[in-house]
Amino acid sequence: MALRIELNGYKPGIAKFLAYKWNGSADIEILIQRNQDSYYLSGLNQWSPEKSWHTLADMTVEHGQLTGLVGEWLVDSLLTQESTARFLVQIRDKQNENYSDRGVINIADGVMTSAALNTVTTTSDTHLEPEEFVDVILDDETIDIETQTISEPEIEEQIIEEPVEPVTEEVFTSVTTSETVTDETLTQPIKPKRKSGLIFGLIIAILLFVVMGIAIWYFLFFQNQQTKDAESAMLGQCSLSQVSDDDLTFIQQCLQTKPQTSTIIQLINDAKKEKKCNIAQRLYANQSQINSTIAILYAKEYDEKYYQANSCFEADKETAIYWYETALNNDPDNKDVKARLAELQK
């Protein structure tokens, strides 16, 4: 049965660790694994591919609830990771090593890193200096001057009458001249209209046909060819033939081409066939946090219902639960995953 594990706020760099439904003793050790690359926490902000167990001291168990305080080695190490990171915690009973359980840890908003302690101290040491107020005292004489009203002598408006000069209207007579139309004008031949308009229209039509032809060629042939070339380059970069001694570099270069989901899945399957398990596991862990389809496939690698024997993965109920929960983070309305998760958690 999966545990419900929480990390609640206590002090900067210190948090309260709680694990519900724990049926073991208080003498425990834990194993922390992150989902980006499946690495394990080995020390303060240190992660490695090797498993590293950590003993938690001064823990108590009451009514199936495991409780205790953990320090900055765990708090800082988790909070300094990416916001999309999730952590699987496995708890093992040191008094009964056959009993262990696991669960995804939920970190509350009130949990703070040890760096927050310096911020709190600096804030508390800051004092506000009282502001100095200057009273402005006005003399009586000043007030009297300001309140006095200045009376200005009234100026009588003088109306100056200007003599009006008589306006004489000039009458202009327009003389209309009638043009005489001679017989010579009437007998002039009418010139035929030029054909330049028709020729200009034909040129425009031809240009339009040329432009349309170029557009059709670009969209149907040239762009298609570019897409095929890009896909070929992407497939080449994500081909196992490109793998050198550094698996991580190969994965990074492949993901930089932004391959489609189907390409990533094909690469994972090819890696399993070639027994390049490190590549398959890293691709699964990296892409599962942002792609629910891949997260579901990763969960099925561990789910006994769908498990197919291979050299890279072994059926594990708790790990399947972990990746199903990760898939629901990106696709919370997936009914099939919810149903399967409920069956596994019974």
Structure in words:
The chain is of the alpha+beta class and 346 residues long. It has an eight-stranded mixed beta sheet with strand order 6-3-9-10-1-2-8-7. Helix 10 (317-330) runs antiparallel to helix 11 (335-344). Residues 122-187 and 227-234 have low confidence and may be disordered. It is elongated and about 105 Å long. Among the domains are: 4-116, Immunoglobulin-like (Sandwich), CATH 2.60.40; 240-344, no CATH class. The chain has helices at residues 72-79, 115-124, 140-147, 183-186, 196-237, 247-256, 261-273, 277-288, 292-302, 317-330, 335-344, and strands spanning 4-11, 14-20, 28-34, 40-43, 46-48, 54-56, 60-62, 65-70, 87-93, 100-107. The chain has eleven helices and ten strands. 41% of the residues lie in helices and 16% in strands. The termini are close together.
Secondary structure topology:
Blueprint: E1 4-11, E2 14-20, E3 28-34, E4 40-43, E5 46-48, E6 54-56, E7 60-62, E8 65-70, H1 72-79, E9 87-93, E10 100-107, H2 115-124, H3 140-147, H4 183-186, H5 196-237, H6 247-256, H7 261-273, H8 277-288, H9 292-302, H10 317-330, H11 335-344
Parallel strand pairs: 1-10
Antiparallel strand pairs: 1-2, 2-8, 3-6, 3-9, 4-5, 7-8, 9-10
Q: Top keywords for this entry?
A:
single chain; 346 residues; alpha+beta; Immunoglobulin-like; 8-stranded mixed β-sheet; two-stranded antiparallel sheet; 10 strands; 16% strand
